[in-house]
Design brief:
The chain is α+β, with helices and mostly antiparallel strands and 433 residues long. It contains 13 helices and 22 strands. It starts with a strand and ends with a helix. The protein binds flavin-adenine dinucleotide (FAD).
């Protein structure tokens, strides 16, 4: 069958084995994959069989006094939230889409709108133990106390250290399942960054910037800040039900989302945001997963697909220089998402570190590889790094220059899988096997 990531590029012919019992299913498989929400080639097997985990989604244990949950790796965040929000618990990390599995969350060590806060961080912080099948066939538990190197390499290790079969994590208690949200419009980059800094006390922040706008309005955008609403603020609203979703039924022609059409879209989003500051109590899906509103929106980029470049840049000045480069290159599409990141997590290849994360969708064109190389050159010059879960085009040399931690990761990977039986297209591209 044809397999792709969310960006629909590249497309590979490969076998995906599906089933409810991951232990036998993963025997001999070269990679596990969840819902394929990583954008590029991270979830695509280099050769051999991949295991699709989505049918292995049972909840195995939950202790309401501690919030500790044990579940199979294919459980989706969407299902977890549907079950636990009304019961006063949430995943402590809620990324931009809920259509991801626990296994995919661990492998990418996902982050979200609360990463900048001391009580935030990546999902790895909340993982207690992982049950895994290794490349040599052994099934074992790993944690900070059991096979600790394996644990650190697996959190953020993009599926290359073994198949995650079960995940034990601690859920967070929430006062209500609704969100108090404020949004504010900023007219240019300097004011936007100032607004961002003032919002650091908020538990959740995220912003959207118009990267197509040049001149004085460059970097204009909308900042979102929020927190779980108190019981009083939620009032007599019932527990939120999953929102009804629409799907894009067809592929739009490649090239339809171009500079002209997207400029109109961006202008519209910015202009309809009146008054300048808005306050409301909103559904948690609207706040945490706004992109899930239109399922399969990735078809909007047509058959050639798209990629995302997400990097973290350590300094504010560096982030501004990077945004100017993005605007000058003219590669960006309508989505340019800005987030603040806090301290680096335990996962050896975990993406976030202190600084500003900038994520931008880029339609695949003939020049895309060269554009990504130019962006990466800037990331390296600024001392930043890219997020593997979004990457499709980065070269091995550039990745090695961004992340000295790779050597330690590869040493541990080889200890547990000397023949590199577990491989993805991404690992072959970046590490040679
Ligand atoms: C619209 C959108 C918004 C997003 N927003 C965010 C965000 O805010 N923050 C963020 O951090 N990420 C974000 N992402 C990225 C997404 O969270 C990650 O790519 C996540 O890994 C996808 O999960 P998945 O289950 O679809 O995994 P897949 O994409 O199928 O796989 C991702 C990686 O995980 C590995 N993997 C999956 N399951 C297992 C398993 N059981 N055992 C071992 N390895 C496994 C795969 O081999 C692969 O390397 C977003 C993606 C989309 C499409």
């Amino acid at each position: 069958m044809k397999l792709t990531g969310w960006g629909r590029h590249p497309v590979v012919e490969a076998e995906e084995r599906l089933g409810e019992d991951l232990a036998p299913l993963t025997d001999g498989a070269v990679l596990s994959r969840g819902l394929g929400r990583s954008y590029g080639d991270a979830s695509l097997p280099a050769d051999g069989v991949a295991v699709g985990t989505v049918n292995a989604d049972r909840i195995l244990d939950f202790d309401s006094s501690t919030g500790v949950l044990r579940a199979e790796a294919g459980l989706t965040l969407h299902e977890l939230s549907r079950l636990f929000w009304p019961r006063g618990f949430s995943s402590p990390v809620l990324p931009g889409t809920a259509y991801i599995t626990l296994g995919g969350m661990v492998a990418a060590d996902v982050h979200a709108k609360n990463h900048h806060r001391p009580e935030g961080g990546t999902i790895g912080r909340y993982i207690r133990r992982l049950k895994m099948r290794l490349a040599d066939g052994r099934v074992l538990w790993t944690s900070r106390a059991e096979e600790p190197d394996l644990f650190r390499a697996t959190v953020g290790g993009m599926g290359l250290t073994g198949h995650v079969l079960e995940v034990e994590l601690t859920l967070q208690r929430i006062p209500s399942a609704w969100v108090y949200q404020e949004t504010e419009r900023f007219a240019d980059l300097d004011r936007y960054i100032e607004g961002f800094e003032k919002a650091l006390e908020w538990p959740f922040t995220m912003g959207w910037i118009d990267c197509l706008k040049r001149g004085r309005s460059m970097g204009r955008g909308i900042l979102y800040r929020g927190r779980w609403a108190s019981v009083e603020e939620a009032g007599n609203r019932p527990a939120p039900k999953p929102l009804r979703r629409k799907s894009l039924p067809i592929d739009l022609p490649s090239g339809l989302l171009n500079r002209q059409t997207l400029s109109v879209f961006n202008f519209g989003i910015y202009r309809i945001h009146v008054p300048k500051v808005k306050r409301s109590i909103v559904h948690p899906e609207t706040f945490f997963h706004p992109l899930d509103k239109l399922l399969s929106w990735n078809r909007g980029y047509g058959r050639r697909g798209f990629t995302q470049h997400q990097s973290v840049i350590p300094t504010r000045e560096g982030a501004k220089r990077f945004l100017r480069l993005l605007t000058d290159l003219g590669v960006a599409s309508f989505l340019c998402v800005i987030k603040d990141c806090g301290e680096e997590g335990e996962g050896i290849l975990s993406f976030p570190k202190s600084g500003t994360s900038i994520a931008v969708d880029i339609p695949v064109r003939d020049r895309t590889r060269a554009d990504i190389a130019r962006l990466n050159e800037q990331v390296i010059a600024e001392g930043g790094r890219i997020y593997l879960a979004k990457d499709t085009f980065t070269s091995a040399e550039d990745y090695a220059a961004m992340d000295p931690r790779v050597e330690e990761f590869l040493r541990i990977r080889r200890r547990y899988d000397p023949d590199c039986k577990l491989r993805s297209l991404q690992s072959v591209r970046l590490f040679g096997d």
